[in-house]
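SEQUENCE, STRUCTURE TOKENS:
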Amino acid sequence: MSDVDDKPEGVSEYKPAGKQEENVKHQLSGMYQNWFLDYASYVILERAVPHIIDGFKPVQRRILHSMKRLDDGRYNKVANIVGHTMQFHPHGDASIGDALVQLGQKDLLIDCQGNWGNILTGDGAAAPRYIEARLSKFALEVVFNNKTTEWKLSYDGRNKEPVTLPVKFPLLLAQGVEGIAVGLSSKILPHNFNELCDASISYLKGEEIQLYPDFQTGGSIDVGKYNDGERGGSVKIRAKIDKVDNKTLAIREIPYGKTTSSVIESILRAVEKGKIKVRKVDDNTSAEVEILVHLAPGVSSDKTIDALYAFTDCEVSISPNCCIIDDQKPHFLKISDVLKRSTDSTLQLLRSELEIQKAEIEEALHFSSLEKIFIEERIYKDKQFEEAKNMDAACEHIDERLTPYYPTFIREVTKEDILRLMEIKMGRILKFNSEKADEAIARMKGEIEQIEHHLANIVKYTIKWFTNLKNKYGKDFPRRTELRNFDTIEAAKVVEANEKLYINRKEGFIGTSLKKDEFIDNCSDLDDVIIFYQDGKYVITGVAEKRFVGKNILHISIFKKNDSRTIYNVAYKDGEGGAHYVKRFSVTSMIRDREYDVTQGKKGSRISYFSANPNGEAEIIKVTLKPIPRLRQIFLEKDFAKVPIKGRNSRGNTLTRNEVHKITLKQRGGSTLGGRKVWFDRDVFRLNYDGRGDYLGEFNTSDSILVIDNNGDFYTTNFELSNHYDSSLRIIEKYNSNKVWTAALYDADQKKLPYLKRFVLDATSRKNNYIGENKNSKLICLTEVYYPRFEVIFGGNDSFREPLIIDADEFTPIRSFKAKGKRMTTFKVKAINELEPIRFPEVPKETTPPEDEPEILDPDDGKSDNDIIDEITGQMRLF
């Protein structure tokens, strides 16, 4: 008997056991592949990614649909809303409750009552049975319209739910969204309500549009790499940090996606790692964020602000990913594309609503016209109508009587229209008023005409729709996040130098753990160290607890990247028996742990003289040569100021080709680089040395910067790049102690009468106010003109008076900034204007300030030249 005859019952074909196992494996792998694809598609389409039409995930759409069905103008318990939504959403009450709370916290579509949590602190909402919600007026106006909604059956087939809601606003961009699916994710940042309205209007007008994120938590954002929200872009978001005083910082606003708790935790982690020095952190957050950071004694507040941005959650970087569902597929778009699609959808929805409204009015007009003729012509009283055998005969008679009026009707008269006429009650016929009927018909014709006008000009109608929407709700949505350009903060420059670097020259080790050896400098674990050796080699290496770097170390210091003002002055011997050269160079960047050479690399080369000068100082050295026959002069001097600064690989200038006995320092010199040129960049409110922004001048060590704020506060700072300045500053310039300022102001202590004062500003790092201590005093004008003139225009009952011209120099003397000044007038003042000056100060003749006497050293310790020669030749002088 064959194998086929022996096959088990119900099996179409018999196979050996091995082949059966292979078949089962193949079937299982195929099933898993299909199941996984089905699961991935389901998560993408039905759970995690929003739809481009209405901007909702399915759970959000179902929540709003349920709330609309429950809406009666009163608040509903969230627990009731969650339970009602479960008719449409098959994933349990927890996911519905969480999604509802998130929608409510965005403060746009849902009117909340009770404890809904706090997005600032991260506190959760109360239990669903304790909190209530209802749809906002905005949601009722913008999100719903049963007549333009496409419906589908719910998951169990018992109810209908919307495929998408007919949203007439770019809600997806207004609320933002974040979702993680299988194989892809979506992260769309929220944008400002008013700016979305303006952008939609601009798009409808054919203009370019540009949108940037705006967050409920405030802060500031750098959108230089936003890339229109497309994949690959990024934004940096910073907290708002104010200086309460030199020892206290206040964090007033936090980055999007962070809470006060997470920010504080990140600060404490940075403190534990030694990145910043903070005495304590207090959280005073309630309705507004307030995190007070108390600094340790001797810590710079400006440097700490940069460190907070560099090492904590006070600055975060977010990469947007605009992924949406369109036509049952995920797509990656730009933010501008989403807005355009949403605006186009709004236009089509408005068109549909107008067409539906027009059809409804036309239907009402059609029946009103039929009713008017039916009653006025008393068709219902015709003998043939009353004697009609059945309903069909009655309908035929009415249709015959209406036939002469057919040209006046909007559409053909149907049997349904006639049956509806026959349902008119006698009470309505008795109360029928022909004039009112004519008025109603005329009104409906006017409404139809207006709708047709809107349809013919649908773009203008849509623009007006967005304009009205902005006027109605826009005041509740001011921009909270400030658009700024951020400067790049180098962590190594702002990290707290909480370690000490030591060196053991004998054994050739450096490190922070060698506490019994020679101290080098304070440092951090992010710093690099530059090391020069006697043979001319030099390297850059990182700070470590203990590291072998070799012996014969000539110079070691903390390396500052891109520091072009630290100049190294070097004299070296070029190989055995070679000439001596001098060179000046800076080291701005190097590869860590790679060996470089000051010399030309010949065997026997060595450094004869070395100095590191933080501000480009150039000294004079004395060179003593070894005496040889016919050498007349064994002493020579070299001024490094005459040696040009070149690249570190240059050979340098020839010093001498003779044998050198020693090189010593004879005279210290000044900087050859001049003062530091400083600019102020108003985009980032920071100083820079790169020529960006307003030029403030050339600064030497003793110079400072004057800052005057809009509220009258003034203070002076140094010109370090780490300084922070507020956006409220009015004037920033190089401080001049002799500069005279003139201010016209209304003094609140003197019944707000106008006063004029002239003064000089003191150099102080502490804030003072030249307007006065009373915050109600108001500045009219502040000028630096030396001989200013003012015009006082009178108003009220004194408007008949001629304007008063005041020469400030003659009117009031120069006094302290604390002086009240002199009252300008007691009459009613309408305005005070500054006039062009008619006098100017004499320009003083330039005089060259006396130079400081250079410090001349004795490199030979009082020995004469002959004594030195004797030492070199080994001779003894007889006395």
Q: What stands out?
A: Residues 1-43 form one domain.
